[in-house]
Amino acid sequence: MIHQVEKPIERSPLRRKIGREFYIAKRFLKWHFSGTKFSKIDHNIKFPNSWMEHKSTLLRKLKDVDMYLQYNKITNLKLAISKIDGVVIRSGETFSIWRMVGRPTKRKGYKTGMMIHNGKVTTGIGGGLCQLGNLIYWMALHTPLTIKERWRHSFDVFPDVNRTIPFACGATLAYNYIDLQLENNTDITFKLNLWLDDEYLHGALSGDKASDFQYEIIETDHRFEVQWWGGYTRHNRILKRITNRKTGEVTEELVTENNAIMMYNPMLNE
Predict the structure, then answer these.
(1) Under a CB-based contact definition with an 8 Å cutoff, are residues 199 and 57 in contact?
(2) Could you say which of 71, 143, 181, 191 is the most buried, measured as most Cβ atoms within 10 Å of its Cβ?
(3) In this predicted structure, what is the pLDDT of residue 162?
(4) Any idea where the domains of the chain sit in the sequence?
């Protein structure tokens, strides 16, 4: 059975700008009046128990995308992770990327980077920070942290090239109302570290307690479909398989179902 996906509606630039600023103000008020306890950086704390480490390639050759945008992305990532690296997520606290990073602006040193709007490559100040959201989200899936807020990518823009994780296991970002938030409803205190080298963006999650469980993220029901309006869409389901290290008991839970509009023909070799 085909999962119907509606063709996106193109809004005028003025309407998009007004709507964006409205939601930014709304989220700003929520930060300050919701009573949420947000996590903070503490460089004095170090935990011996590694929960998850991951890395992602900094420079990718993408079709019809100038490489200078990739280099600008590295600058943007350096600025953003300087506001996050070392954050400690204690029990009852919420981690928010945008609450920590703030609004990317030229004044702060952010550069023009690649962005995606309605499936099309565009540019904007602070572009490329979705790579940070993708990395943190993927690591968080391998922990008992609750995904309080995550927005999936609505478009599949580029064909798979050396993909190492399942399709649509990322988290898109747009200041400040399209955020990635993790809530700690456990009795474990976690710490997130982030850094760059010449090739990769690195991340590591550690905790004050060792894990009694093994986490595995698996993909099911992956398929391509043709929609009534002529476009292609891509679909899958992401499951979290949890194995108790002591008893061997295995449980599975649904993480998300993804339905993305494809911006390339999956039947053609790119």
Answers:
(1) yes
(2) 191
(3) 66
(4) 35-210
Q: What pLDDT is recorded for position 147?
A: 96
Q: Could you give phi then psi for residue 74, rounded to 5 degrees?
A: -60, -45
Q: Choose between 40 and 232: higher pLDDT.
A: 40
Closest CA to 194 of 139, 263, 122, 119: 139
Please state, in angstroms and rounded to a whole number, the distance separating the CA atoms of residues 255 and 250.
16
b/e code 30-62 from CB counts within 10 Å (16+ = b): eeeeeebeebebeeeeebeeebbebbbebeeeb
Residue 204 to residue 139: CA distance in whole angstroms: 8
**pLDDT tens-digit series, residues 75-90:** 999 999 999 999 999 9
**The two three-digit tokens of residue 72, written as one number:** 């600008």
Q: Which two tokens stand for residue 153?
A: 């990518």
